[in-house]
Amino acid sequence: MTNKIYLEKRSERGISIAKFYELRRILDYIIEDLGCENPIIYIDELRDEAEIYVNEKCRQEIERVFSQLLKDLYEKEKIMFWRAEKLSFTKRSDKILSSLHVIRYEEIFDKIYEEILKDLRELFIRYISVSDYLNKEFLMILLSDGSWIVLEGDERSITIPKIESLIAMFHTHPKNICIPSRKDLESILEFLSEGGVVAGVISSTCVFITRLKSNYLSEDEYIFLQDYVNNYEDFLRNIIDEKCCGKLYESENLVLEIIFL
Fold first, then answer.
1. Mean pLDDT computed over 8-15
2. How far does Cα 215 stand from its chain's mean position?
3. Among 3.40.140, 1.10.3470, 3.40.50, 3.30.420, what is the CATH number of 4-11+110-260?
């Protein structure tokens, strides 16, 4: 059965999440392709702008390829909605800099995760009770343009559609059960392998979360999750050993956890 679109919503927080997601992609381009180290990122939330400051060596490299850089970012990375990606080469006064928010490269995915949790709690908690009442599952997905889409599935099941450029994906479970099934883990693994960064299962009391701390799932982390899919009983035993909630696993790039709503 085809999923029914239950809601489509662009929240301010969803748009902000999408911008941070694209900012991270820009930084990856600058660091990995241009060899820039330790960029400093200033966020001006009032003006909806980001400025990236780099060292002198990197500044010269960016100047050398600057005309091609923005073209590549727009054509290859599909950046369309960050109003001002600035690679600023001028010094700013202390007064101006003090009004900006500094964020480290490593903190960007933590920021994305925190904002997604806030939207889940504020926008979608009611769909959990609707899910219990109708005995149907709902799927919440965050697109790369900042739009949330809620899809209504069938009784106790939902088909995850093939949509490119997703940031996050959660689906509901009935009652108080947020432990993913083997099929859920398989879907989460596929989602993260195709560019998603946060996925999970949400119930009326808790949420199971799998999230990345960078843009890509490494080969070792893929094997780790695939092993849980293949040996689902080991995954369940791990949850029991951890007494249900808290971090079930954490590596340099991957976190599995269960938290209360």
1. 83
2. 9
3. 3.40.140
